[in-house]
Design brief:
The protein is α/β, with parallel strands linked by helices. Helix content is 26%, strand content 29%. It folds into three domains: 6-194, HUPs (Rossmann fold); 226-278, SH3 type barrels (Roll); 282-364, Elongation Factor Tu (Ef-tu), domain 3 (Beta Barrel), CATH 2.40.30.10. The chain has nine helices and 17 strands. Strands 12-15-14-13-16-17 form a six-stranded antiparallel barrel. A five-stranded parallel β-sheet has the order 3-2-1-4-7, sandwiched between helices. A hairpin with a 7-residue loop joins strand 13 (305-310) and strand 14 (318-325). Helix 1 packs across helix 6 and helix 3 (79-95) packs antiparallel against helix 4. The longest helix has 20 residues, at 102-121.
Length: 368
Amino acid sequence: MHTKGRVLMAMSGGIDSSVAAILLHQQGYEVVGLTMKTWDYASAGTGQKETGCCSLDSINDARSIAVQYGFPHYILDIRTEFGESVIDNFVDEYLAGRTPNPCVMCNTHIKWEALLKRADMLNCEFIATGHYAKVREENGRYVISRGLDPTKDQSYVLWGVSQECLSRTMFPIGGFEKSAIRQMARDMGLHDLANKSESYEICFIPDNDYRSFLKHRVPELENQLEGGSFVDKNGKVLGKHRGYPFYTIGQRKGLEVAVGSALYVTEIKPESNTVVLGEIEDLQRQSMMVRNINLVKYAGISEGQEALTKIRYKDPGTFSQLVQDGNTMRVTFHAPVKAVAPGQSAVFYEGDDVIGGGFIEKSLKNQN
């Protein structure tokens, strides 16, 4: 008999969500599985075999778990919403000279909203995912914190999830290390999943070649933008490039410019199709502006709030001071940071807790 409530479990067919679903089932929850079809690989023009969370094999893996443990499983086709909110934003951000964060966009605007809507339709009190993170209620707020395994923690990509969504969210594996989840899978008889290699690419770019993806989505892009200038910080032309959307802040490889020392992309100017190159010290920034702020731990913060700020997923973080002005945040780092990329997420931490986050609007070279 189920006594703990009814949970809609997002199941990708991978090891993490599969083990999470079984754990909830074993703990006495009434589990309903849902696999979201977000992307059709044929649309990417990569010519690769369909793999990952949206493939038929993955959908079948999720369904087989549900059948084995006796709970219902549904498939939800959200390719249209995913295309409009995530794919279009991905392309638009590169065309604006920024580096997008598709996983954050998907979590914020697609997965949680789709899960909550279907949870209500299926009379589920809770929703659950296989993310390595934790959530708790404290002082009337629902707080995201880091998962136990520092190498798998996914709190960084969850800063945009609303309080309403978090109030009904469960992360069943957030308190485990990945090695423990693999062992659980073996103990559950899921040997294929336990030994399955993981993909770290963007889900809709299985070959990890975003430049080819952009060319396929916007065929005229290369012809229109090829031949723009690489310049140094003083404006001196150093060579020609293939089009500014094909470069990211901090990039070193593939520049095809030789000046006798290592060069990095330090700035992208879409209005003039110009890419600025410099040496590694030219990537250093002391502060930045962050937009679209979503606060998680607190409803508001005091001026000068101290936080550890991460500017990319694998960034260990840098201590900083936060000053909020409406929907924007000025972040001043206590030590210069390298390669602040507009479009990426900035996430603010207090210990293991997520204070909030936003999208990097621009970097500033000094505090003035």
